Amino acid sequence: MASAYAISVPPQIAEPTNIHAPKAPSIKAFAEAIGQAAALPSNYNSLVDPRDKDEVDDSLAALIPVIDFSLLTSKDPEIHAKAVHDLGKACTEWGFFLIVNHGMSDNLMKDVIEATRNFFELPDEEKQEFSDTSAASPLRYGSSFNVQAESVHFWRDYLKAFTHPQFSIPNKPAGFRDVAAEYCHKGREITKELYRGMSESLGLEANAIADAFGFDTDFQFYIANLYPPCPQPELALGQPPHSDNTAITLLIENGIGGLQVYQRGKWVKVKPIPGSIMVNIGDQLELVTNGKYNGVLHRVTLNNNVTRVSLALAHGPSFDKFVCPIPEIVKDGKLEFKGMNYGEYFYNQQSTQLVGKSRLDLLRISS
Q1: I need a labelling partner for 37 at 20 to 30 A (CA). Which of 71, 214, 222, 299 fits?
Q2: Is pTM beyond 0.90 here?
Q3: Nearest 5°: CA angle at 62, between 58 and 64?
Q4: 29 Cβ contact partners less than 8 Å away, ≥ 6 residues apart
């Protein structure tokens, strides 16, 4: 039986008819070289037609759930229970929410975005030291998602680094490792509390999800993204519609906007509250909750005026964990997913094209 994703999401990725790859070491360098008046190269035309404005519903943006993290961690049983309920509802209905009063200082969030931007401002020859095409590399710099596997590319430069249990952030520019280490540590603390609230919202012991993922040795992934101005943003994407291969992703950005989530058959523009952290549910939470939590489809749109910088801090199981639905969730219902070793899942997804929920759909049990 076809997956719900295949039925509900309109196809968007085009096959290019005339390949003209940029002869530049990065999208940043290419965008600066061609300027805003140039035509988009055909192998970056990632939409079949210019984006249909009817597919984007601005009215739904106001309905994006907002979770007050301070209430979730409250010692008052009634306040905590209400926050847990709201968190569970957000995970079930949206698979995406904003958190406020999370304890991450504005200065830390600003500093880590600035340090990330400074990395992308390094000379190209310095950044190329971290160029690596292997998904197994704990530190790699590149463009698009996987240019070797793609016939059409995306308007994005990235830095991907494993940050737990090993910490692989580069030692340049100066100060980058230190501010990233502080940010990653705080991100793990927030994620652990979210896992606790999610477990409780499902009627489980508070540590159930953390235990299912092996939290002490779990995987943390630092994904820095740079989206330069694009000459024809209506024809291209920074990232295609996809779900994350991890469990929870914490996302911050430099205030430009561009993230859209798929909800109720429409794309919804995310307009984060200043100082908030965007959180999306990924494949591994959908898997362990047996589909009760929704791993959200999202994409990144572009503009032709300013550069967007975003930082995704993704958290997933230990690489050696066999991940499957938590038995207590399945005992009174139907098993929706097969299990899989997470390390294998991660490397498979990172080594292919980025398409919707295609990797998770392979584990879906057909009726």
Answers
A1: 299
A2: no
A3: 105
A4: 124
Q: Please answer whether residues 188 and 220 qualify as being in contact, where contact means their C-beta atoms are separated by less than 8 angstroms.
A: yes
Q: 280: which 2 tokens?
A: 């999306």
The ranges assigned to domains in the chain are 4-361
Which has the closest alpha carbon to 257: 118, 102, 122, 58? Answer: 58
Q: What is the pLDDT of residue 53?
A: 52
State how far the Cα of 114 lies from the Cα of 206, in Å rounded to an integer. Answer: 35
Average pLDDT over residues 243-264: 93
Nearest to 223 by CA among 255, 184, 256, 262: 184
Q: What 3-state class would DSSP assign to 299? A: strand
Q: How far is CA 57 from the centre of its chain?
A: 21
Tokens of 212: 């299912």
Q: How far apart are CA 102 and CA 251, in angstroms?
A: 13
- Looking at domain 4-361, its CATH class is mainly beta
Tokens of 77: 């049983």
Share of the chain above pLDDT 70, in %: 85
What phi and psi, each to the nearest 5 degrees, are found at residue 48? -60, -45
